[in-house]
Amino acid sequence: MFDDDIAAISTPPGEGGIAIVRLSGPEVIFKTASIFKPYSKDKDLVMQPGYTMQLGWLLDSAGGIIDEVLVSIMKAPHSYTGEDVIEINCHGGTLPARRCLQAVLGQGIRLAEPGEFTRRAFLNGRIDVNQAEAVIEIIRAKSDKALELAVKQLHGHNSRQIMNLEEQLLAVIAQVQASIDFPDEVGDLDDEEFVKQLQEIQDHIDAILLAAERAEVYRQGFNIAIIGKPNVGKSSLLNALLKKNRAIVTDIPGTTRDVIEEYLTIDGIPVKLVDTAGIRFTEDTVEKLGVKRSEEVLDSADLVIWMLDFASGITEEDMNIFHKVAEKERIVLVNKEDLEANI
Q1: Predicted pLDDT at 107
Q2: First vs last Cα of the chain: how many Å apart?
Q3: Amino acid 11: pLDDT
Q4: Which sign, positive or negative, has the C-alpha torsion 272, 277, 280, 283?
Q5: Is the pLDDT assigned to residue 9 strictly greater than 90?
Q6: Is the pLDDT of residue 162 over 90?
Q7: What residue segments make up the domains of the chain, in order of their start?
């Protein structure tokens, strides 16, 4: 347990219905009580049981009212950090939350460092490393599937798998050690059974690693770049996939001069879809910058949709692009098949 108290605003900045100032530490209940005036005078904050809430006024150092607040009390060890925790629910907005925090810090409570509440939860044995990582994954989840996986991790799914592996390995080590130290009592190891046990452990590890790789796709998402020469239909494809007119479409080559990024979810996977400027040699300074950015997007893409013009056939510009996408995972899409073919 830590001997100091910490506090921070736990909600995002900006206007909203409520904001929350969170406190954690051995003295937070007493220190909050000194600047909190409950509506019910007979309900001292210090005497209230855990998992209760009190409505009242938060006061500044001069006894002036800062805001009407709802104070949540969570007592150790049954809290997020494993310590006494107070959450002050004030009205949303930057100013009310900041003034509430200032009042709290004036009671000898220090400002928490980024991630310190979760660090205390880990160091106090409230959560393990896997669960600590799951907290940030829940916050950053970009799809329902990513959130589902993160919640399972927070609930201890990954931790239980690792603990199971540890138990299996310790059992194997114990068998080996016993056969060495007490050969007469234990006898020789059954080589076939020993290899079978190790193979089962290896298969279990492989399955966990494979699941982790798949989960990473749901967490990090997938970058898809739409690449092609000018006026091949890249922006039209982007609009069709998004089912809205996101990019300007004209019959003038070079309309798109910068990358356009949009996000969508495909089978639970968050996808960043990038429409790029047509790749070609140009003397136009602005278009040249757009082409350079397109090539940078191409380099970082997980998948490339390379678009060809059915009507114009394979051109020198297409061959130049081919050399750039040759080593990438790609889908070749031939557009304008309704026009006269030269391909």
Answers
A1: 96
A2: 72
A3: 94
A4: negative
A5: yes
A6: no
A7: 6-126, 133-219, 222-335
Total Cβ atoms within 10 A of residue 244: 10
Whole-model pTM? 0.68
Contact 277, 290 (CB under 8 A): yes
Integer-rounded Cα radius of gyration of the chain: 30
Q: In what order do the strands lie in the sheet with 36-38?
A: 36-38, 52-59, 65-74, 85-91, 18-24, 6-9, 110-111
Q: Any idea what DSSP says for residue 223?
A: E
Superfamily the domain 222-335 falls into: P-loop containing nucleotide triphosphate hydrolases (3.40.50.300)
Kindly state the DSSP code that residue 48 receives in the 8-state scheme.
Answer: S
Q: Is 39 exposed, middle or buried (0-12, 13-18, 19+ CB in 10 A)?
A: exposed
**Distance of alpha carbon 183 from its chain centroid, rounded?**
52
92, with CB counted inside 10 A (0-12, 13-18, 19+), is middle
Superfamily of 6-126 according to CATH: Probable tRNA modification gtpase trme; domain 1 (3.30.1360.120)
What secondary structure does DSSP assign to 254-318, as a single string? T---S-EEEEEEETTEEEEEEE-PPP-----HHHHHHHHHHHHHHHH-SEEEEEEETTT-S-HHH
Cis (ω within 30 of 0) for the bond into 183? Answer: no
pLDDT in tens, 270-296: 888 888 776 666 666 665 676 677 778
Q: Which two tokens stand for residue 213?
A: 């790789």
Share of the chain above pLDDT 70, in %: 90
Pairing of strands 110-111, 6-9: parallel
Contact (Cβ atoms closer than 8 angstroms) between residue 60 and residue 53: no
**Tokens, residue 58:** 């938060």
Count CB neighbours of 251 within 10 A.
Answer: 6
Query: Measuring CA to CA, how many Å separate 173 from each of 3, 183, 192, 199, 298?
Result: 41, 15, 16, 14, 49
Q: Where are the alpha helices (DSSP H) in the chain?
A: 28-33, 94-105, 116-123, 129-140, 144-154, 157-181, 183-186, 191-220, 234-242, 285-300, 316-325
